[in-house]
Amino acid sequence: MTKICGFALLFLLALGANAQSYKVTSVEVAITNNLPKDLDLEELKTSIDEAAEHPKTRADGKMFYWKGMTYYMLATTYDSLANKYPDAIVVAKESFEDCIKFDDSRRREWAELAQDRGLIWVAIELYNRGYVAYQNQEYDLAITRLNEAIPLMDEENPLLIENNLNKNVLLELIGYSAVANENNDLARETFQQLVDNGYKESAVFASLSQLYMYNGDTAQALKTVTAGRDVFPNDRSLINVELDIYLKQGRSQELIDKLDVAIEEDPGNTIYYFARAISYEGLASSIRTDIENLYKVKPGMPEVEVKEFLGEPKDVTTEGGVRSLNYSHGSVLVNVSSGNVKKVSIKDESLTAIEGYLEKALADYDVIIEIDPSYYDAYYNKGALYQNKVSAMIEEMNAKGIYDPDEVAKYTSKKDALYAKALENFEIVFDNHTEMSNEERVELAKNMKRVYANLNQMDKFAEMKAWIEENE
Questions:
Q1: What CATH fold (topology level) applies to the domain 373-472?
Q2: Rounded mean pLDDT of 113-121?
């Protein structure tokens, strides 16, 4: 075995260290003086990887910078190399971070380059990859890449400012990726963070409000959409979300007031008329429900049971041995002596109010149809409204005990006219609404068959019955 003297060993070690430094410099020279497409990037990768393993250069700031540059180019120059080295962009990121950590040069010029250029380029590439993943519906990958980019966002970096990139832009895309991936918790947390950051984007407020509604937090949903409307008072998506919240809360009159303003500003918007029509029907339905409950109170019922059923009255008056329990839409008259119900009285103005609200709803449906004759939901709702009017009329007859033939004849005439109007609208939907599912069309046909029977239109009844049997 040949013995190596100490001087020779030191010479060889120095030579090895110089060789590694030369490899770093050669990578530097190659990248500095050539376009990426003119480089043999895999050869540069081999050189810089060897330098990264050598004890003399593996903790060198300059080496880490050029390793970062080499791997950044591997990740971004050719698709074939990017696919061959899928983790190259992550290695580039880690190398630039190590450069900042280990650079001990006097002016730390490599650390400065890594901070102001290297990591910014990596951040832009990670964003691009996240965006492409989002476009390709690879939402988990999009979220991963965007989260990797967020810590690198320097809000004052000119390159990021030039590309309109910042943490909030990335968070917004994470939020939409989470929504698309049905990760509602992450989406809600992300959009809330954006709102807390003061991010001004109407779609973020709208999405966050809808997510709170989905989670059952109506109060927070309304708070969010209200904050959004303060910033974007005329944004249609926010207006629609706000209207939806009021509609689901049953706050029909407040909703109508807001819709009046929205329609004045955008009179051609069928959605607003449709929402207002539904709200008018909601007000009518609320009054009708109260009246139906009053009708269920029968003579002889003890007063205590009336209060248990209807709740405490608005006020109580007594006159001539009769106590009147006064409710919003009628009164229950009780014999003072017996404590039992004598009769129920319904306010005429309440019945008039129901009819008024329903007529307003019909008027809005007519406006919708005038604007868009193919808006078949408006025809359907008109038909259902007329049919519900019949149901209310029958309940009223039964509650009032109307048996006089002349009175019955009057009600029957009104009932048949309402049924005919209902059918007129149902038939338009049935004959023209091609986007209805077969199941929906069958259900509509069954309803129409019953109405034909009520009107004694037996030919149409038989025709509809045969259609149902063939298509059900």
A1: Methane Monooxygenase Hydroxylase; Chain G, domain 1 (1.20.58)
A2: 91
